[in-house]
Amino acid sequence: MRKKQFKAESKRLMDMMINSIYTNKEIFLREIISNASDAIDKLAFLSLTDDKVGIDRSDFAITLTIDKENRTLTVSDNGIGMNADELENNLGIIASSGSRRFCQENEEADLSDTEIIGQFGVGFYSAFMVSDKITVITKKYGEDQAYKWESEGIDGYTVEPCERETVGTDIIMHIKEDGDVADEYSQYVREYPLYKLVKKYSDYIRFPIKLLMPHPVLKEGSTEENPEYEEVFEYDILNSMVPIWHKKKTDVTQEEYDQYYQEHWMDQNPPLCTIPISTEGTVSYEALIYIPKQPQSQYYTDDFKKGLQLYSSGVMIMDTCEDLVPEPFNFIKGVVESPDLSLNISREMLQQSRQLTAIKGHVEKKVKAELKKLLENNREGYEEFFKYFGRHLKVNLLDSYGQNKELISDLLLFYSSTEKKLVTLEEYVNRMTTDQKYIYYATGESVTSVDNLPQTEIVKDHDMELLYLVDPGDEFIPGVLGKFMEKEFRSIDDADLGFEDEKTEIDESAFKDAFDFIKETLGDKVDEVKATNRLRSHPVCISSGDGITFEMEKYFSAIQPGGIGAKAKRILEINTEHAAFQALNTARETDPEKAKKFATVLYNQALLIAGLPIENPTEYTDLLVSLFR
Ligand code: ADP
User: Fold this and answer.
1) CA distances from 367 to 161, 191, 371, 374, 460 (A)
2) In this structure, are residues 210 and 192 in contact, taking their beta carbons and an 8 Å threshold?
3) At how many degrees (to 10) do helices 379-399 and 354-377 cross?
4) pLDDT of 283-340, one tens digit each?
5) Would you say 609 and 457 are in contact if contact means Cβ atoms under 8 Å apart?
6) Residue 112: pLDDT band with limits 50, 70, 90
7) Residue 469's closest CA among 494, 449, 498, 495?
8) Could you give the CA distance from residue 220 to residue 211 in angstroms, rounded to a whole number?
9) Do the strands 422-423 and 483-484 form a parallel or antiparallel pair, or are they unpaired?
10) What is the spatial distance between Cα 547 and Cα 307, in angstroms, rounded to a whole number?
11) Ligand 1 mean position, distance from CA 172 (Å)
12) Cα separation, 438 vs 493, whole angstroms
């Protein structure tokens, strides 16, 4: 029979598996058992709506069979099975996203250094770490023909029809001979090591994992005084079958919670937070929710699908149930089990289910509480969380037009001018002095660029704290929040910053001619030229008034390049006490050409400091140079 070739990436993975000198080869059993459990889950789910399945829930099982003579270990299940196409597609190409990621991350890795293998779910191929030949016999539910898939590794695989009486799958692994290390592979055809492995990695599997185990029984005819034993083999169920989310918090160690998370969601890192939930009330449910340390690779892509696994009375109804996940916390992973959900419920009805909505609301509260706890007790951990997921929280706040502000506002962090670190709005308000009216903020591209804005001087001069809003979209946050703890926000660009000592009006009439001159020189580039009293060491600044800010303008043009977009006003504010302005004013009469140059230089300087592009950099630098002559 002609051998078919594995796809390139699968080949590479298999090559790694076969040649792996990785010490944790034993995880192969966990992978094969977990596939068997998934296959049973699928058939168990079908059986809810299809009477023809004919298997009682209590008959679902995973059976391990050892053949010591032929050195084979077989993992059998009575799950959904595979047809010929599925065998090709699932085992001929690399199916699991975990394996794919493993392959990618190990592109250049030295094979002797692949300690990482165990941290990924590497799937079916991991069986090649311990086997030199694998045979899969499988029959799909609803089909008459069974198929045999066979492979000895890289060379390829064959698929042919075969006999199998019932629906399900046998994975027959021909175990490698021991090399230099005694018992390295032989342990996989012995009962006790297998028993220990199942306990270690697959104890939570919710279907019985059976193995014929030797039991000593009194030999017939032997007496109590003179007992003689013989070994009788009986099927034992090796796993406790209690899912981890059913266990009491106090009975599970953090390592066990971490291990469960890492294996199920294929994460290299343990989770940042683990939230076991058990409630009874209007809706009773049990859940195990995790907040990841870092987003997984597809988090920022369209492929990302939020969701929690949903179980009802021991049956998995959905692998990724979106409707359970509150959108602001779309990064959470985990499992929810509720006996209140009818098993026969269709997915469409599930979406409208009141119970689901109630559970989602409750999960939201729990996650929020956990994040607040983290913020209070582990600032570093929270800042790490915020680095990865803070932007999502802010986007959600804006997308929901502030509907989620109660939930999100106290989770936000902004850089503070006085603390020189990220602070919460609550911390800011608690530090406000009695004469401070507003929460001051400045928007810009980065902390350094905002810090250099001339407009910040006056707030700093008053020893008041300023928040720097430097992420895209941040400038919309104050508007959406309106107030925080009864305090209004105020941008440093606002004409009225509420400082009593700045209230004195400047007599603009004294400078009217100068301002008209500047406006005329700059033409349409500026909308207005006016005096300001909020500058100290700087001669000018550019502001946008009360409407659209420069950051908003940048934001809109980024989301709609070339579009009509919204344009911010450009107001040139002048520190009339500054020597530069005075020089301009004098030159206006003595050397108007020079005064024009001064005006243009000051305007460009204001643009530069505000992080805005200057229209013609060459012209500007030429102009500057000409002033030296
Ligand atoms: P993963 O389980 O992460 O998807 P694997 O490489 O372990 O990746 O398995 C590939 C696919 O092969 C599975 O997704 C499943 O569709 C199929 N498969 C593996 N084992 C079985 C089994 N015992 N019964 C039915 N299908 C199986």
Assistant:
1) 51, 43, 6, 10, 37
2) no
3) 140
4) 889 999 999 999 987 888 888 999 999 887 777 777 889 999 999 999 999 999 987 7
5) no
6) very low
7) 449
8) 25
9) unpaired
10) 39
11) 14
12) 13
Instruction: Bin 486: left if φ > 0, else alpha if -120 < ψ < 50, else beta.
Output: left
Question: Which of 145, 139, 147, 127 minimizes the C-alpha distance to 39?
Answer: 139
Distance 94 CA to ligand 1 centre (A): 10
Q: Whose CA is nearest to atom 18 of ligand 1?
A: 35
Contact 537, 452 (CB under 8 A): no
Distance CA 623, CA 521 (A): 14
Q: Assign 138 to helix, strand or coil.
A: strand
Helix, strand, or coil here: 406?
Answer: helix
- CB-ligand 1 contact for 79 (6 Å cutoff): yes
CA distance 610 to 616: 16
Structural tokens at position 364: 């939201």
Q: Tell whether ligand 1 has an atom less than 6 A from the beta carbon of residue 95.
A: yes
pLDDT digits (tens, 9 = 90+) for 451-490: 988 889 889 988 999 999 999 889 889 989 999 999 999 9
What ranges in 317-475 are assigned the alpha helix state H? 347-352, 354-377, 379-399, 405-408, 425-431, 447-451, 456-461
Q: pLDDT value at position 113?
A: 43
Residue 338: closest CA among 281, 254, 262: 281
CA distance linking residue 206 with residue 38, whole number of Å: 10
Query: Is the CB of 39 inside a 6 Å radius of any atom of ligand 1?
Result: yes
For residue 488, count other CB atoms closer than 10 A to its CB: 13
Is the CB–ligand 1 distance for residue 78 below 6 Å? no
Say if residues 601 and 609 touch (Cβ distance below 8 Å). Answer: no
**8 Å CB contact between 33 and 198:** yes
Q: What is the pLDDT of residues 191-222, one digit of tens each?
A: 999 999 998 888 888 899 999 999 988 888 88
CB-ligand 1 contact for 82 (6 Å cutoff): yes
| Range of weakest confidence among 57-66, 95-104, 563-572 | 95-104
Alpha helices in 171-288 (DSSP H): 191-202, 254-264
pLDDT tens column, 524-534? 999 999 998 87
